[in-house]
Amino acid sequence: MVKMVLLISCFIVLSIATLIYVTFSGLPWKKYTVGHEIVAYLEKKYDQSFEIEERHYNFKEGNYHIKVHPVKNPTISFSAGEERGTQSYTDEYPEEVWAMQAEMDFKDMIQELFPNLRRYHISSVYGQGMELVVEPPIKNYKETEASIGILINIPQQFEGTDEEFEKMYHLIQYIKDNGGNIELFIAYEPDENNARRTVYANFTNDEMREINRLEDVKIYYDNVE
């Protein structure tokens, strides 16, 4: 009788543990099958080979996704997975390609104008790739309507000097000459632990088109909190 009780107790505990694991981590075998299905989808869509880096399960949405990269270019890592509520897949490959292209176009100028920057980040708005890219090849971001964001973080207090505005102006002109749908965001952050001391400057693509003089930068900057 005691053995029976122990067996039943162990079975209940094991069942609960399995249920908890499956709820938060998904079915192990399905991670692999869905992962291979997603890779097949990517290879058909982009006509090239991909390699899986990681497999994941999103318990909040109940779907599986993977982190993957092209075999010919391992430096581009992106997410792809099941689209919520459908039988189709979604991926962020175009967004990562566009971000890499913009990185190559702007990194040297950003570092030249802001040699003391804390960090910068160039990204593409996720989700737009599924609409803008129907079939390969993935066009350059400048040939599409892809939105690119440039964030520059500077570890110093903003003083409102002409030199500071001149750097903004030169970068804006460089962005305009380069082309593309770009939004520029600059944060002067002398203290990462005190957000009140941070000053932000944000310029949309439409605003940058209107900036042709140094004074124009100051006009649009005045609209930033």
**How are the strands of the biggest sheet laid out side by side?**
1-2-3-4
How many beta-strand segments? 8
- Structurally, the number of domains stands at 2
Distance between the termini: 74 Å
In terms of DSSP E residues, the strand content is: 15-25%
C-alpha Rg (nearest Å):
24 Å
Please provide the ordered H/E string of secondary-structure elements.
HHEEEEHEHEHEEHH
Low-confidence stretches: 9-27
Biggest pleated-sheet summary:
4 strands, antiparallel
Determine the fraction of residues in helical runs and give it as a percent range: 40-55%
Structural class: alpha+beta
Shape summary: elongated
Tally of contiguous helical segments: 7
Mean pLDDT: 85
Can you walk through the features of this model?
With 225 residues, this protein is an alpha+beta fold. It has helices spanning 2-25, 28-46, 93-113, 129-132, 162-178, 205-209, 214-221; strands at residues 50-58, 63-70, 78-82, 89-91, 119-124, 147-154, 181-188, 199-203. The strands form two sheets. A four-stranded antiparallel β-sheet has the order 1-2-3-4. It has a four-stranded mixed β-sheet with strand order 5-6-7-8.
